Structures are given as C-alpha cells and as structure tokens.
Amino acid sequence: MAIIKMVNSTQNANSTNVVNWTHGERSNVLGAFFYGYFIMQVPGGRLSEIYGTKRVFGVTMLLCAVLGALTPLACSANIWLVFVLRVLQGFLEAPAFPGLNPMTAKWVPQEERGKFMSFAYMGGTFGACFTYPLCGWILDTMPWQAVFYITSGITGVWVVGWMFLVYDSPETDPFISKEEKEYIILKRTFDADRVAEDLAVPILPLVWDIMLTRAVWVVAIGTFCYAWGFYTFLTEGPTFVNDILGFDISTNGWLSALPYFCEGICGQICGNLSDFLTGNGTFSRLKMQKIFTFLAFGVPAAGMVAVSFLSSVELKWYCIIVMAVTFGFGGGSYAGHLQNCIELGPNRSGTCYGVTNMVGNLSGFLVPYVVGAITANGNQYNPEAWRWVFLIAAGLYMFEAIYFSIAASGEVQKFNSKVYNKKDLLKI
Fold first, then answer.
1. Across the chain, which distance is largest between two alpha carbons, in Å?
2. How far is CA 302 from CA 226, 258, 397, in A?
3. Which runs of E-coded beta strand occur in 208-288?
4. Is the Cβ–Cβ distance between 215 and 408 less than 8 Å?
5. Residue 214: how many CB atoms within 10 A of its CB?
6. What's the pLDDT tens digit per position in 358-377?
7. How far apart, in whole angstroms, are the C-alpha atoms of residue 122 and residue 49?
8. For the chain, which residues make up each domain, given as ranges?
9. pLDDT at 13
10. Mean pLDDT for the stretch of residues 331-345
C-alpha cells in the first residue's frame, strides 16, 4: 500500500518526500522480504520446538516492529539499505507459522484442530483486512512514513500481550483448570513423553528425512501454489487496483482488504464444518482435507481466470466482486492441506512446516519479479499484461487442486518417531 505513495510517479508528481525508484527497483524492494523469509523457515520451526513458540515468536516480532519503524529512515538514505532491512524483516517473521505448529500440536485436541487452525492461523488474513483500510486512511491523510510508525506501534503492543498471556503448553500454564488440562492431554496427538528425545534430534538428518518424504512434498507444492496466488494479491493487488481499476488510495485500502475478509469468513465455516463432519463419522479427516483443498484451490482458480477478463475501469466493480468471493474460498486451505502437515508429524511439526513453507515461499520473491517482468516497460497499465499474471496463478491453483486430491496422505510419517544418533550427522 505504502509503495504507491512513496514512489515518484505521475500520480505523485506534486508530492514531496518521495523516492525515485524505478519499476525494477520497486519489484526488488517488494521481493526482498522473502529472501529472509525463505532462509529462516526450517530453523524458525526447529527453534520453536527447542525454545518454545512463546519466546521465539515474541522476540522476533518485537525486532520486526523495530525494523518497521526504521523503514522511513532507511528509505531516505539508500535503496539498498531498505533492501537489507526488508530481508531482515523476512528473516524475523519466518518463524511465525512454523512456530505455531508445535504449540498447536501441544494445545489442540485432534477433533478440534480444523476450527482452531482456521481461526488462529487466519489471524494474518484478518490482519490484512484491518491493515489495508488503516493504511489507505493513513496514506490519504498523513505522510506515508506514518504507515510504518503506526503499524510497528500496534505490533509492539501485541508483543506485550503475547509475552504475558501465552504459554507453550497446558503443562506450563499456571491458570488452566485441571479438567481442561487433562482433557487436552488425552485428546491431542502430541506425545509429551518423547520431548527430551525430540529435542536431541539433529536438525540436518531430520530435515533430510522430511524432504525425502513424498507426503511432505504434496503439502509443500500446495503451499507453493497457494502462496503464489496469495502473494499475487498481497504484494501486487493494491498496484492492480490502483493502476488498472483506477480506485483512489483510500478506496484501494478497503477493496484490497475485501478478498481477505471473505477468506477469513470462509475459513471459519470450513474449519467448523470439517470438525463436525469428521466428528460424526460422515467423512474421514483425510477426505475432508482433500475436499476443502479442492475448493480452496479450484474456486479461486476459476475466479482468477474471470478476473483476467474483467480488468478494466468499466468492469471494475464486477472484477472486485469476483475477486473477493472466489479468493475467499482459499480459507478452506487451513482445514485442508495446511492441517495435513500436522497429521504427518505431530511431534516434529515445526520442522516439517518449516520445510513445506520454505519450499512454498519460494513464490514470495518470485511473484514480484515475474509480475515486474510481465508489467515492465509501461505494461503496468495494460490489462492484457495483467491477464497473464492471473492466468499463471490460476494454472498453479488448478494443478494443486487435482494433485492433492490424488496424492495426499493422512498417515503419521516415519520421520516423526525416528531415533537418531551421532552417526546420522554424516549421512548428508
């Protein structure tokens, strides 16, 4: 959102305090975050398994907020300083989702996991719903630098609440009732008796075994395809709404948030429906994961094809409606392929999720470059160029809808319980 007002352009011709970045430099800055995000996925998940999600997630988010507040200063100095800062932010944010998996495995009974993941893991989606309109209002009424100060301040307040209210497991929570703790321990798939053994596992042989597991690659490819579409909307969506559909910056914020709002609502419905239908024996958990994965990828794929032919000022409202409603079905992924990751390795789910998210988020820094190449040389205002942006994403989505339905597994994999020794370090 901020980059629309930050960069010197025809729209900002009369503005002061803007940066003179080229179209290519702009794509580099947008993509820089994902270099660090990619690198730290596996270590982030493993660190959370060893030191606890509370400390790892809390400290990294605090440091990320500090870097966010320093962004305006970096922009006034040098573009490469901004690039490095963005890489570091990605590095610090990477443990977020891999780190949540170990905590989820410890806290959530298996029959409640669908609705829990659809609620808790959708926090990022609802965050976008809140942040886009907020940033649109800030950019319309204040200097663009205020976006970074305000959002960093909000994160800082959140960190205080997180550190005081959150505990890594029911066993360490001093406020939980005895009945609730016993219920969770009985119903979860996490095996607390193997904690010491799991913490002693060397990371390289474990990662190697995870990467050799076919069922993990089904999830990893799904994450790559999903992230491609997600980042197309997240990083490039505001530019598309601005350059092609012609909405002003304040309206842009609300409209860019609309797909995420729909995704959040759909995610809650799918999560609760998944637990209900598996709980009463209508479908197996794997069958439900396949159904929701197909919906989460197939419907948005059709929507992106439609959006590619509705990309004009004259059809802009039809485009927004189709974009929001169809992208909303992506909320089913949390009851689908993302939940499947914990099924494959509940005790080592942080490292497993780190591997799948590392592969998946290759798309994070590929999307800005691909979109930048397609929309270069003035084509950022060309609907035909943007059509290819959406068709590529639609193709990847449709592939995963079919692939997961055929190849996904619901069995706990061998790496979850494998015992390692010092000699295993020499196997890689």
1. 66
2. 14, 18, 9
3. none
4. yes
5. 9
6. 888 788 778 877 887 887 77
7. 21
8. 2-177+191-421
9. 43
10. 84
